[in-house]
Prior knowledge:
By secondary structure, the chain is α+β, with helices and mostly antiparallel strands. Helices cover 45% and strands 14% of the residues. The protein has twelve helices and four strands; from the N terminus they run ααβαααβααααβαβαα. It has helices at 2-6, 20-30, 50-58, 61-66, 72-75, 86-92, 96-102, 107-110, 115-133, 145-152, 179-183, 189-192, and strands spanning 42-47, 78-84, 137-141, 159-167. It has a four-stranded antiparallel β-sheet with strand order 1-2-4-3, sandwiched between helices. The radius of gyration is 19 Å and the shape is globular. The two termini are 27 Å apart. The mean pLDDT is 89.
Amino acid sequence: MDAVRRRRMVRSFTDEPLAPEVVERILDTARRGPSAGYSQGVEFVVVTDEATRLELAGEGEEMLAKVGMKNFVAQARVHIVICVSAEMYKSRYRESDKMAVVGDTTEDELWHTPYWFTDGGAAQMLLLLAAVNEGVAAAFIGPQPALLRRLLGIPADYHPIGVALLGHEAPDAKQYGDVSARKRVRRPLDEVVHRGRW
């Protein structure tokens, strides 16, 4: 619960590097998320090369400037692109042990919820919590699939769901906190939990 309560999106990083073993522990935790049918269709691209990180960050420069923020994406020393493969899930569920259970189910019925995205989100949250546990600052940004594919060679059958940014929190980070969270309060438990039925 301590890691959950302390987790927040950090939008200002120092230029201090992260120890490789810390990044490895965070990745090892992230890969341990739930996986439908144990398909394990979530993979990670770790970007530490400065030129590549700056090119990835360049796309959002104008948007961040409009809201008065510096380019925290460029500041983060480690970018981790979380990718999911629908095909790994679909092929796993064509194996004999799964076909015995879902053999009469159509693809549309079977995948009405695309569980590769569910599992990717679980991996993302584990990654963010592992960062807190390691004393590392983190943020998550939405993907630019075409740019990520071009720069990082991500195969066509993998979908990048976003980029986790890791680094050390800068002293001025609090001023770049979550703008939405300052304007909106967290909905109370009784408002989001429906007991017995909706």
